[in-house]
Amino acid sequence: xxxxxxxxxxxxxxxxxxxxxxxxxxxxxxxxxxxxxxxxxxxxxxxxxxxxxxxxxxxxxxxxxxxxxxxxxxxxxxxxxxxxxxxxxxxxxxxxxxxxxxxxxxxxxxxxxxxxxxxxxxxxxxxxxxxxxxxxxxxxxxxxxxxxxxxxxxxxxxxxxxxxxxxxxxxxxxxxxxxxxxxxxxxxxxxxxxxxxxxxxxxxxxxxxxxxxxxxxxxxxxxxxxxxxxxxxxxxxxxxxxxxxxxxxxxxxxxxxxxxxxxxxxxxxxxxxxxxxxxxxxxxxxxxxxxxxxxxxxxxxxxxxxxxxxxxxxxxxxxxxxxxxxxxxxxxxxxxxxxxxxxxxxxxxxxxxxxxxxxxxxxxxxxxxxxxxxxxxxxxxxxxxxxxxxxxxxxxxxxxxxxxxxxxxxxxxxxxxxxxxxxxxxxxxxxxxxxxxxxxxxxxxxxxxxxxxxxxxxxxxxxxxxxxxxxxxxxxxxxxxxxxxxxxxxxxxxxxxxxxxxxxxxxxxxxxxxxxxxxxxxxxxxxxxxxxxxxxxxxxxxxxxxxxxxxxxxxxxxxxxxxxxxxxxxxxxxxxxxxxxxxxxxxxxxxxxxxxxxxxxxxxxxxxxxxxxxxxxxxxxxxxxxxxxxxxxxxxxxxxxxxxx
RNA sequence: GCGCCUGUAGCUCAGUCGGAUAGAGCAGCUGCCUUCUAAGCAGCCGGUUGGGGGUUCGAGUCCCUCCAGGCGCGCCA
Length: 645
Prior knowledge:
Structural class: alpha/beta
Number of strands: 17
Strand order of the largest sheet: 1-2-4-3
Shape: globular
CATH architecture of the largest domain: 3-Layer(aba) Sandwich
Number of domains: 4
CATH superfamily of the largest domain: HUPs
CATH class of the largest domain: Alpha Beta
Largest sheet: 4 strands, antiparallel
Radius of gyration: 29 Å
Helix content: 40-55%
């Protein structure tokens, strides 16, 4: 459809440009509200009406006759207050769409795109908030790759921060555990740390004197002194593995895990600091509350300064982030060492290190960078971009995209289900923020297990004879589909108030509804094969246009068929739209609407029972087309595709 | 106080660069399984798009203002 539209625009523009003051930009093509009015609508008569001080309808009537011989268009019509509606040649369009299934018409715009997402502190289990982040980031990556972009997925690991420190403190000082003791905790290490971290947080609140010990641990970790450093290393590596397993369950993976420890060890910050000082992007504050700190000013907030280096000469979080961002664009003049960390589905996930490695790989050096981080960090993300701008990397600053989204909070109902004690004050609120510190949240694996359990029951009901292994596999796919769709169906600025009942739903606008639609199509093809020996290779012979004719279809079926095909044909535009607006709810909605339309069609038009071969063939081709597009879109959303369910 | 975001059906949310009659799901009610999987389909019910003003051929969408809510504005990360 994108090809066709561009082609039409060019033709129309050439037709009218000499007689009318119009730019190619102003030549918009939209959809019509109903196909009876046509398939595509031209809106430029409104623009011209304004410029020529004429009624849009008049302009449209003047121009429409000149557009009679557009390629692929069978009829034009003036409609409403001044639209020119185009009716496509349905058969020709359908055949072209079928042929173009194997050749995407999208093309890349960037040299290399880096996406940073997930970024969970390696000191506790992943929760639903992290799942939203990962689903958004992963879907962005999938869509960009589909578009043809070279994409690198990075998952930043803050393995030397205070959150890890707190767990080290918990193990050493509260639990008196040695490295060996900790290594023996094998079951659900991330869950164990979740609880420990909560205990440490409340302990620290009541024992302010422990702050000293905490600072000592942080210092020892940063300087590599044992036992703190080894403990921190073991804990973070163990937790990262747990996170990667969790994410693998929902089909999310990474190329590289850049670690804060490497950024410190390889002195990335010192290099970045030097650059920033040279360009006078940061300066030493001489007076006021920030006296003795190196600070940065924001372009549009002149009165504010952000501390980058503290008066004790340690660097803040945002400072390290600036160094990392500079590296991502390949502008730091320093690089990490890389070690293989994990094999996942024949794909190596690499981790950075400050110790030399025999592997020579290139990471980073992107021309466009997306940072998928929730909207609470938009101020800091602005500071990061400001850092680049101050270094005169204006293009890179502009291409530092903060993919911002709202957080996931908890409904009062879900709090009850978690048996989490809440105060009077908290009870009054409509929702409660997830808090790792308080241990308040729905763990990702818990949610996935509940989804799988429920899905398994549903599979049991319908397919009791399947072997247990198969049932579990299907249940897993359904759980993953339900979760991923749930995380994508909301616009990114919409706060998700998490509720178990809603998240565990498999009916209506949910992932399983989409999967079910596909299962229905699979089922038809399978029955065609079983009962009639139909092979999919036969499709190519059906495709030869001489055999395709829409004529035998009833007028109603002609329209229903056409509505379905036309809607489906927009899928590439939907992908571009989603990527351009960073709004995957568009893609989710498109997929859902497509399934709704298909299910309506499915109920009206039988394939196996159809006696008329010509009609049957058209229907087979139609569901084949829908199936192929559905598979593509589900794949982009990371929703698995069970054959049966 | 300043900045960003949000306000659409009983509830949860869509709504393309400003385009034709504001759409889904859930909940409620009515039908439809000897037919290709009822995780479905068809139908009913449900709206002063937070209030007011403006811009124009046209506003849920853009501008101003007011109201209500959320988040951010650390020498935390």
